[in-house]
């Protein structure tokens, strides 16, 4: 792998959600492929350290994971793998109960890994766990920007609001990106962004020095090709590149890259 100049620093984007099952890992993987197609050197780091599943989505069977790097069993170089779609991945081991809470060791190891890989890429996507645990919040704190993935379901929106509130009040986040997945009609995502912004304006911004702004980066439609791609353990952009959801992912990547 070629090393970029020492003053180069990748843009770090944390992709997170208030609840599980909203397609966060699917978004991370396909967004990485779309950004790679635009010429970016992209790394996806599976930061859901205890319940990792990026390897499943990409049909990878890693012999070396972040766990091996953290324990000193293998080098970081051994753990960075090429993924379908032209990007790189750092995969976590699944079912590692020791990573379910933020210990000083986990915090220091995660920070060190990100510090070491940052000069080598143009963009690093942190595929975080869901919710607002201390592990998730610390992972997000390492990012330059945050992309919250939500669906139109009331429970998802409630949890997305809770995540936005915590990020605004504990990390000082004032600009948070929003992607709405599984919309049933065009424009639904932008409407949801408006509704969430109203709630944030009413209940979160008062008492803060600056208002919290939700930047709408796009919506992904309900698309049967998504389920099929996930079942095949393939990237949507590779097996159904012309599908509505794939085209929507490319549009989001274009927006993020500009």
TrEMBL record:
One of its GO terms (molecular function) is ATP binding. SUPFAM superfamilies: P-loop containing nucleoside triphosphate hydrolases (SSF52540). Keywords: ATP-binding, Nucleotide-binding. It holds the Pfam family ParA. InterPro entries: FlhG (IPR033875), MinD_FleN (IPR025501), P-loop_NTPase (IPR027417), ParA/MinD_ATPase (IPR050625), YlxH/NBP35 (IPR033756). GO terms for biological process: negative regulation of cell division. GO terms for cellular component: cytoplasmic side of plasma membrane; cytosol. This is MinD/ParA family protein.
């Amino acid at each position: 792998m070629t090393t970029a100049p020492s003053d180069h620093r990748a843009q770090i984007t944390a992709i997170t959600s208030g609840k599980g099952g909203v397609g966060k890992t699917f978004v991370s993987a396909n967004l990485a492929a779309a950004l790679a197609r635009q010429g970016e050197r992209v790394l996806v780091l599976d930061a859901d350290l205890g319940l990792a599943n990026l390897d499943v989505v990409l049909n990878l069977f890693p012999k070396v994971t972040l766990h091996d790097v953290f324990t000193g069993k293998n080098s970081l170089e051994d753990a960075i793998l090429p993924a379908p779609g032209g990007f790189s991945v750092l995969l976590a081991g699944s079912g590692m109960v020791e990573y379910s809470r933020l210990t000083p060791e986990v915090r220091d190891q995660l920070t060190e890994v990100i510090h070491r890989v940052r000069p080598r890429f143009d963009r690093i996507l942190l595929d975080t766990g869901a919710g607002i645990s201390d592990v998730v919040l610390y992972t997000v704190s390492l990012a330059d920007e945050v992309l919250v993935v939500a669906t139109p379901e009331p429970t998802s929106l409630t949890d997305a609001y809770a995540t936005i509130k915590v990020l605004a009040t504990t990390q000082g986040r004032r600009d948070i990106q929003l992607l709405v997945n599984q919309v049933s009609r065009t424009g639904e995502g932008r409407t949801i962004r408006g509704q969430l912004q109203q709630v944030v304006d009413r209940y979160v911004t008062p008492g803060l020095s600056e208002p919290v702004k939700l930047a709408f980066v796009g919506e992904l439609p309900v698309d049967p090709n998504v389920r099929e791609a996930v079942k095949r353990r393939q990237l949507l952009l590779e097996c159904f590149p012309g599908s509505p959801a794939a085209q929507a992912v490319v549009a989001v990547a274009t927006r993020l890259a500009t």
